[in-house]
Amino acid sequence: MESKLVSHSNNLTGDRPWKTILITGLLAGTLDALGAIVIYQAEPAAMFKYIASGAFGAGKAFSGGSVMVMWGVIFHYFIAYSWTMLFFFLYPTSALLRRNKYVTGLLYGVFVWIIMNRVILPLSEIPQQPFNLKGALIGASILMVAIGLPIAIMTHRYYSRRNHYD
Q1: CA angle 79, 144, 125 (to 5 degrees)
Q2: Strands (E), the chain
Q3: What is the DSSP letter of 144?
Q4: Angle in degrees, 0-180, between the axes of helices 17-40 and 44-56, rounded to the nearest 10
Q5: Which of the two ends of the chain, N or C, has the fewest CB atoms closer than 10 A to its terminal CB?
Q6: DSSP per residue over 52-83, as a string?
């Protein structure tokens, strides 16, 4: 009985998948935002307005004040939670994802970068820029560390604590 209590108290996310998803998405979204702010030396409000410009266009987003900052935050975390949920629900169905959480996390970050930059952003209102290898490597690195690794590690932790996978 005591070992169950200790095990449960040491498990940050318990046995509730939505709690794990909530914590993981928040962690990944926050790390991604902080990574972009630090690496690009971006003003947080401007960064979130840039994100909002994907839906509202640059003119409206950058002249929109705090409302557009909030829209950018909402869109940013919606995207982070979407990537979190996708990985979380695919994880138990794929032995490949469970093979090595670190390699999988890094590769998932690259996958996220490819889909975001080659599919999602071109469909948005954000003006397209020419491909820049250095920028691509920096952006992919941020997503590998800030999105891929936390999502893979936290998802692995959730499922392994439930004794599904080790």
Answers
A1: 40
A2: none
A3: I
A4: 110
A5: N
A6: HHHHH-HHHHHTSTHHHHHHHHHHHHHHHHHH
Establish how many alpha carbons lie within 13 A of residue 119's alpha carbon, considering only the half-sphere containing its beta carbon.
Answer: 6
| pLDDT tens digits in sequence order for the chain, 166 residues long | 434 433 443 444 456 799 999 999 999 999 999 999 999 999 999 999 999 999 999 999 999 999 999 999 999 999 999 999 999 999 999 999 999 999 999 999 999 999 999 999 999 999 888 999 999 999 999 999 999 999 999 999 999 987 654 4
The overall longest dimension of the chain from CA atoms, in Å, is 61
- Identify the H or E element spanning 152: helix 149-161
Q: Which amino acid is at 107?
A: L
Q: Classify residue 76 by burial, with Cβ atoms within 10 Å: 0-12, 13-18, 19+.
A: buried
